[in-house]
């Protein structure tokens, strides 16, 4: 009998290893042809590996010319000799001894992905997504995104949270019936969850602290630069809190951890994209009403809607806190009850507002969170006040009827957070395959 | 202006800290009342915290009786004095000085969750899921599940994989039209993805190595102990492979890493559930046809379907390799082309079978994987042979037309893996809120 014993036998030269090779060492590199340049006596074949570009050199007196058979997009396995070369990327190149063509591209690429900046419209990029992302700057944004999710999980594991997976198909959802995609589930009407809210609250009764990173679905008829109809939500919920500030603190703790992780493990991508990480050491907080008045006064703006923040108002709040406190983030607290869902806890000192918050990052809301009602009777009353029924909420309500700790939590939009961090103009830049009102493919 | 500066100010006594307290030290513990026992002079109030049970003791000469106001399910904040006590769980108890009731349960619980083993039918447990999982053994399974997902990500990050998020709503899917949930997407017909297959292949052209952990949806009309209609798939896909054995090796590497992580970080749960971790140091592999014949011969069984494995056959293969090689896992390779999807690469030496595999764990398939076709022309031919059309696959095919490395990958069913590891009878035990043909709630 033969056995598989793990990774032994798979050996690949990784990028860093290549850079550390001594001059004259034989090395094998695999990668896709990023560009080919024929200089007469020699040809430069730049390979794109997952970690960066590597210059390989074909000397015509060593081997016969390659350019007639090597094209952009081909995947190669190159054996060669490492050599220090000041003009090469990372000051290292590979002098080719032999090339094995692993696969070939049948046509020249429709996008100039080998260019440093892919100067193509968003529309064109999305229409060739799998190709456009081969551009090294384009793909770097998604490495940054990985860092943000990874930091979220790592930080919360450390804080004693349990990771959960809640169903995306359901019979009823947190915030009533609007804005939900409907489907047929074995001949029964069903919906796609717009949030794991009710599930994560139920799980506070089990694990005390839980988190989930997964897709949520919103059938909102928005067509803006900051809305997606399917996105990744970074959700956490925690019991035994003293106030909703504990949630803000946990989120601030995450952001600090995330920036540190990006700094240490994603330095290459930060440089490539020219990102300056935001200041998260201290995040100011301000009440909703006060925030409204501060910007109305400073920027001479009329308050039109007292119950919500208009996008322009969010931008101005961001601007205000940048100018006054050099703060990139600001917690806006005590949102009006009218605009918050049934499970939000009202402020006992003023029931017109809730013990909840939004976190703005450079003027865009990236998180909604707050304390939730934990008392069963209070929750039932609130459901009635909101004109909802208990139907479909039986198991959710049982979690409260049989005791649950004071708790709260928050939901972070991963793509929004990425967008603000990398300074993208449009949220579609930060979703591999965005779903919006007109885009369902690929 | 006031600022949030991360976690400072949130101090909770964690379980391990409590166990390490010296006798006489004052400590604050928060938790839910697991049980109350009145012994006359003293009362034992067992608290359930996220990390385990803690015995607290109310001495009647120290404080007035608590039992008339403390009930199972209440959440408490207890201040007391730590004391070594041989008969208490973990040989440590807390002598109560004062109690703050954080929230109250309005009724006795409908399930005896305070019992060691929750001897209740699966049906009853699922009907009170949020309560049943409060039982310490019930919830432990999901901590093990966390370890499995966490290990998957940690291991693949180390191996240079990039984490991706692909859309769950789409216009068309990997394996054609059957078995998919249909929905309306802004008046256009759409489906829920039954696998991230096509997306992860496209992303091989971008990041070389990618993985995703997310929900997949299958509208299969199965009602068995090992099928769910929504489950979590642990998917990876990697470029520059030499053969499909590289995929097996990567998966074996993951399993080794996962068992180590469970051993180190989930020891408490392993003990609680009495789990003996499987042997993953070496995993045998056997060709599909050979496996069929081996068990037909040894267990005197007729081969009925030459193109697929019946569940009973999988069980017998598991049994065979357990008996012959003390192996818990076995890779069954070279599945018939007839039963594999269009993207599977045929074996060049025998086109009736593919360079693919299933991984069986104690006789149940937990993974499907293999090498994929990377040549554009070959792929187009295969699509035609399978009677499919290129419609809807344009962007997918472009990833091949413009060059992609030889690659392969696999998809692991998280709930199946958990089920076999913890020895559950039914896969529904391993999904927080299972979705099956009849269960859409809560």
Topology at a glance:
The structure is a homodimer of 442-residue chains.
Chain A: E1 2-4, H1 15-19, E2 26-38, E3 42-49, E4 52-59, E5 75-84, E6 92-103, H2 122-127, H3 129-132, H4 136-158, E7 162-163, E8 169-170, E9 182-185, E10 188-192, H5 197-207, E11 209-217, E12 230-239, H6 245-265, H7 267-273, E13 283-287, H8 288-298, H9 311-325, E14 329-333, E15 346-347, E16 350-354, E17 356-361, E18 364-371, H10 376-385, H11 394-401, E19 407-413, H12 414-422
Parallel strand pairs in A: 4-6, 7-11, 13-14
Antiparallel strand pairs in A: 2-3, 2-5, 3-4, 5-6, 8-10, 9-10, 11-12, 12-19, 14-17, 15-16, 17-18, 18-19
Helix pairs in contact in A: 4-6, 4-7, 4-12, 8-9, 10-11
Brief description of this entry?
The first copy, chain A, has 442 residues and is of the alpha+beta class.
Key structural traits:
442 residues, 2 domains, homodimer, BirA Bifunctional Protein, domain 2, 5-stranded mixed β-barrel, 8-stranded mixed sheet, 28% strand, alpha+beta, 12 helices
Task: Describe the fold and architecture.
2 copies of one chain form a homodimer. Chain A has 2 domains: 15-103, Nucleic acid-binding proteins (OB fold (Dihydrolipoamide Acetyltransferase, E2P), Beta Barrel); 136-430, BirA Bifunctional Protein, domain 2. Helices cover 29% and strands 28% of the residues of chain A. Chain A contains 12 helices and 19 strands. Chain A has an 8-stranded mixed sheet with strand order 7-11-12-19-18-17-14-13, with helices on both faces. The first copy, chain A, has a 5-stranded mixed barrel with strand order 2-3-4-6-5. A 3-stranded antiparallel sheet of chain A has the order 8-10-9, with no helix packed on it. In chain A, a hairpin with a 3-residue loop joins strand 2 and strand 3 (42-49). The longest helix of chain A has 23 residues, at 136-158. The two termini of chain A are 44 Å apart. The mean pLDDT of chain A is 93. The interface between A and B is large, with 133 and 133 residues.
């Amino acid at each position: 009998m033969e056995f598989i014993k793990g990774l032994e036998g798979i050996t690949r030269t990784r990028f860093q290893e290549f850079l550390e090779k001594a001059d004259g060492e034989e090395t094998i590199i695999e990668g896709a042809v990023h560009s080919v340049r024929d200089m007469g006596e020699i040809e430069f074949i730049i390979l794109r590996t997952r970690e960066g570009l590597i210059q390989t050199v074909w000397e015509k007196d060593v081997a016969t010319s390659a350019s007639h058979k090597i094209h952009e997009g081909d995947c190669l396995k190159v054996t060669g000799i490492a050599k220090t070369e000041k003009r090469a990327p990372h000051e290292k190149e590979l002098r080719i001894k032999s090339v094995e063509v692993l696969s070939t591209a049948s046509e020249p690429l429709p996008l100039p992905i080998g260019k440093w900046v892919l100067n193509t419209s968003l529309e064109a990029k999305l229409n060739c997504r799998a190709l456009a992302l081969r551009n090294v700057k384009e793909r770097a944004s998604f490495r940054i995104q990985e860092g943000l999710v990874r930091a979220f999980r790592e930080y919360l594991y450390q804080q004693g949270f349990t990771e959960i997976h809640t169903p995306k198909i359901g019979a009823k959802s947190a915030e009533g019936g609007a804005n939900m995609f409907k489907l047929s589930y074995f001949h029964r009407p069903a919906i796609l969850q717009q949030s794991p809210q009710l599930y994560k609250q139920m799980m506070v009764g089990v694990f005390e602290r839980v988190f989930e990173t997964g897709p949520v679905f919103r059938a909102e008829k928005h067509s803006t630069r900051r809305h997606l109809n399917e996105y990744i939500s970074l959700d956490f919920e925690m019991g035994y809190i003293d106030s909703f500030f504990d949630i803000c603190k946990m989120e601030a703790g995450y952001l600090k951890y995330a920036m540190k992780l990006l700094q240490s493990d994603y330095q290459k991508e930060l440089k490539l994209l020219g990102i300056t990480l935001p200041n998260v050491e201290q995040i100011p907080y301000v009440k909703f009403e006060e925030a409204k008045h501060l910007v109305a006064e400073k920027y001479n703006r009329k308050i039109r809607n007292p119950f919500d923040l208009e996008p322009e108002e969010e931008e101005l709040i961001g601007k205000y806190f940048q100018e006054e406190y050099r703060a990139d983030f600001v917690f806006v607290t005590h949102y009006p009850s009218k605009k918050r869902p049934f499970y939000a806890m009202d402020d006992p000192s003023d029931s017109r507002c809730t013990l909840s918050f939004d976190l703005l990052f450079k003027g865009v809301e990236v998180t909604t969170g707050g304390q939730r009602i934990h008392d069963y009777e209070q929750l039932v009353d609130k459901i009635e006040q909101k004109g909802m029924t208990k139907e479909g909420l039986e198991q959710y309500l049982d979690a409260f009827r049989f005791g649950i700790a004071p708790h709260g939590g928050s939901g972070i939009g991963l793509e929004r957070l990425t967008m603000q961090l990398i300074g993208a103009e449009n949220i579609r830049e930060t979703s591999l395959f965005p779903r919006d009102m007109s885009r369902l493919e690929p």
